[in-house]
């Protein structure tokens, strides 16, 4: 479903572009509504469009089999989906699935590649973001191996809260187990522990972040490391 481009853009990457580049870029975008659970691209599928989330967010999932899936990155209003195009590739190595419904700016892949060729500012910004995304991917691999489920769940809830722009999250244990690559029982115990510490409130799939500062303290250091890298490369002057 398409709708007019909002007058106030809330995607940080697009907001960061020089005005002339931003105006030209937005002229080739359309705003669409993304639905929870919608699969944008399957592994090895061709990337037909790039997406710049506004108030939605997209999970990038490594899919070994139907029963072996793990979220390895998350894209919200801080980033974009379609990064292989920057490397001259039009295939996705991961499944891209809408995790949070909402609006996104969409651009055809060929048009996006044309903007990359024409604008050094766009290319430079997105290469920095590509590095941040690569860091997130590698960090998740190490985090999954070394860190406890409770700390990983805290980190994941913080990442989701950042991209949902809300303290209220609707996430079932089954969905959380798939995203974190653990058994449902492990998610139940971790959620109960965070609730017992007064950090979240959980009831039938509805999670409320009650104490964000405490949740950051309970999370592994990966959350803060990701935020610091993003700030250093994308928010501070180059």
From TrEMBL:
Keywords: DNA-binding, Transcription, Transcription regulation. Pfam families: HTH_Crp_2. Residues 147-213 form the HTH crp-type domain. The keyword Transcription applies. The keyword Cell membrane does not apply. This is Crp/Fnr family transcriptional regulator.
């Amino acid at each position: 479903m398409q709708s007019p481009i909002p007058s106030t853009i809330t995607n940080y990457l697009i907001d960061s572009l020089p005005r002339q580049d931003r105006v030209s870029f937005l002229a080739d975008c359309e705003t669409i509504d993304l639905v929870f659970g919608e699969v944008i691209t399957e592994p090895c599928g061709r990337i037909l469009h790039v997406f710049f989330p506004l108030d939605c967010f997209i999970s990038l999932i490594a899919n070994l089999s139907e029963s072996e899936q793990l979220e390895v990155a998350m894209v919200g209003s801080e980033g974009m989906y379609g990064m292989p195009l920057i490397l001259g590739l039009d295939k996705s190595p991961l499944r891209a699935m809408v995790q949070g419904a909402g609006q996104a700016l969409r651009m055809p892949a060929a048009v996006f590649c044309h903007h990359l060729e024409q604008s050094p500012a766009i290319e430079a910004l997105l290469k920095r973001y590509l590095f941040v995304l690569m860091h997130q991917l590698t960090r998740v691999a190490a985090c999954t191996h070394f860190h406890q489920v409770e700390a990983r769940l805290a980190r994941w809830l913080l990442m989701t809260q950042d991209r949902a722009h809300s303290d209220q999250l609707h996430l079932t244990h089954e969905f959380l187990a798939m995203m974190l690559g653990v058994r449902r029982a492990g998610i139940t115990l971790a959620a109960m522990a965070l609730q017992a510490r007064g950090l979240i409130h959980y009831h039938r799939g509805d999670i409320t972040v009650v104490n964000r500062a405490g949740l950051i303290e309970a999370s592994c250091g990966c959350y803060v490391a990701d935020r610091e890298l993003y700030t250093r490369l994308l928010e501070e002057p180059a």
